[in-house]
């Protein structure tokens, strides 16, 4: 299976693709109907692509103050969202991203690297990707500009002591997150 375009290097925007649920002709599928290709697509776009980009950026030798991965509340293991039928592959790919980013933060910390690694939930954003029928009420949608503005404020307020943590666009630590010690 070819890699999706959002995983190609060296574009920095590839570090944090927002989602691959509704792009490239892939739609949400129930757990029972999810195919290997659908699951692999989500993992390549939401987990493997961003982590490989991060590895290459870190190996480049350029100074990186903060590295932010766009995650989702759908990737929370502790606060499982059982009503999200059809989001199993997406949620699993975001949970994997969360774990990989936390491992990256811990490794950098042990090496004495001051790079801050953050995970960020951008909120419910009105995009073409979000234009899909779901069986639950989607509340609080904001424009991409509103989300980006809020996310930038959150990112700018964080430092090395926050590395490995998961934040929301509202500058709130994700409820289930535990700060790395």
* Overall pLDDT metric: 76
Instruction: Please give the CATH class.
Output: Alpha Beta
CATH superfamily: NAD(P)-binding Rossmann-like Domain
The structural class is alpha/beta
Write the layout of secondary structure elements.
Elements: H1 36-59, E1 66-70, H2 88-110, E2 116-121, H3 144-156, E3 165-168
Parallel strand pairs: 1-2, 2-3
Helix pairs in contact: 1-2
Short description:
Helices cover 33% and strands 8% of the residues. With 181 residues, it is an alpha/beta fold.
What does this structure look like?
- The protein has 181 residues and is α/β, with parallel strands linked by helices.
- It has 3 helices and 3 strands; from the N terminus they run αβαβαβ.
- α1 (36-59) packs parallel to α2.
- The termini are far apart.
- Residues 1-27 have low confidence and may be disordered.
Any descriptors?
181 residues, alpha/beta, Rossmann fold, 3 strands, globular, disordered N terminus
């Amino acid at each position: 299976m070819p890699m999706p375009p959002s995983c190609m290097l060296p574009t920095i925007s590839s570090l944090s693709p927002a989602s691959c649920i509704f792009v490239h002709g892939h739609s949400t599928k129930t757990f029972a109907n999810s195919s290997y290709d659908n699951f692999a697509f989500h993992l390549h776009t939401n987990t493997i692509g961003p982590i490989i980009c991060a590895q290459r950026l870190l190996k480049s030798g350029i100074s990186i103050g903060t590295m932010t991965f766009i995650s989702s509340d759908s990737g929370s293991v502790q606060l499982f969202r059982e009503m999200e039928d059809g989001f199993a592959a997406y949620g699993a790919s975001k949970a994997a991203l969360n774990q990989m980013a936390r491992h990256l933060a811990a490794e950098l910390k042990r090496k004495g690297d001051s790079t801050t690694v953050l995970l960020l939930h951008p909120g419910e954003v009105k995009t073409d990707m979000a234009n899909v029928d779901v069986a639950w009420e989607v509340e609080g949608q904001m424009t991409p500009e509103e989300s980006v503005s809020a996310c930038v404020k959150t990112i700018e307020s964080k430092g090395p002591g926050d590395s490995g943590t998961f934040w929301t666009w509202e500058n709130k630590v994700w409820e289930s997150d535990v700060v790395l010690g």
